[in-house]
Amino acid sequence: MVKTLTMDELLAGSDVKHLKTGDMVEGIVTSVKKHEVWVDMGANGVGVIFRREVGTNNLEEGQSISASVVDPELDEGYALLSMKRAVKDRGWGELQRVFDEQEIVDVTPYDANRGGLLIELEGIRGFLPVSQLSAEHYPRVSDSDKDEILTKINSLVGKALRVRILDVSRKDNKLIFSEKEAVRDDMQSRLSELKVGDVIEGVVTGVIDFGAFVNVDGIEGLVHISEISWERVEDPRKYIKVGENVKAKIIAIDKDRLSLSIKQMSDDPWLSEVKKFKKDDTVEGKITRITPFGAFVQLSPAVEALVHVSEMSDDESIDPEALFKLNEKKKFKVIDIDTENRKIALSLKDVK
């Protein structure tokens, strides 16, 4: 007796595979209508693509295409396909490969917000956070100046950047880029060639209250406020400007950042000016700061001394703020000079 095979059994014994949602299929366009495109998938039957799922493609009859299966079998018997989804399917696969192999790719941001740059790669939209920008492009401005941050980030829109994929997840629809990671290997190579004591040249990328950031051939350097000048610096912006080219000495290397000194590019004027003063001299100076424990006195452009509260008066309850005014001049007696620690102690009560 001849056994009658079901359609499923016939398909199982042939090369024809059951279509599943998400499968990629090849086909020939047989009809292009106003609202849909019909596709001959050969042994896989017939499929339809609604216009909104065609994307930006201009299709013609007889054209070979690739599409993704949205529904393997509608009630009418044909499959529902999507070319837009096919592009995304291929895109996510390629992005995963790039991430797995840690490739460096070129991208061009198409928009920006205060948080970072918007980037599209392989048809998938992603994000490059501000924190992942390289030292060259990081907006070194005050956190409170949101408008200036956005202006600096906007300047990168339309500009080619080299990046690595930091995180990719189709399930979470997440794609994160990093410019900092893309330049890390090259930066580490250049860092290995530098050492403490070297003199470098760089461009000032930001000036803030505690110092200035300098881009040294893609490596970030920081000149702390105490290393800008031998003078007392109250406002770094009066000494250094964004965009200025500077020479500085490397005083420390910490992971991927340099600590720099501009003042050490010249001799310490304190060492020469302090020679003018001797112990027991009577000197005149200008009050520059008043604190509960004493007052600071400028004796010359580079030399500042301290009159401790105990050297102001025999009255132990003396209040420095009641005794001194900022910028007033007074005479003092030099009671100690510590050249090694760059300190001079003064006395007001011992002045004759």
Describe what this molecule looks like in 3D.
The chain is of the alpha+beta class. It has 4 domains: 25-87, OB fold (Dihydrolipoamide Acetyltransferase, E2P); 102-184, OB fold (Dihydrolipoamide Acetyltransferase, E2P), CATH 2.40.50.140; 194-265, Beta Barrel (OB fold (Dihydrolipoamide Acetyltransferase, E2P)), CATH 2.40.50.140; 275-347, OB fold (Dihydrolipoamide Acetyltransferase, E2P), CATH 2.40.50. It is 16% helix and 38% strand. The chain is built from 6 helices and 21 strands. A 5-stranded mixed beta barrel has the order 1-2-3-5-4. The chain has a 5-stranded mixed beta barrel with strand order 12-13-14-16-15. The protein starts with 6 loop residues before the first helix and ends in a 5-residue tail after the last strand.
Compact summary:
The chain has 352 residues and is of the alpha+beta class. Helices cover 16% and strands 38% of the residues. It has helices at 7-12, 83-100, 146-154, 179-191, 269-273, 320-323, and strands at residues 24-32, 36-40, 46-50, 64-71, 79-82, 105-107, 111-113, 116-121, 124-129, 161-169, 174-178, 199-208, 211-216, 219-224, 245-254, 257-261, 282-291, 294-298, 304-308, 329-338, 343-347.
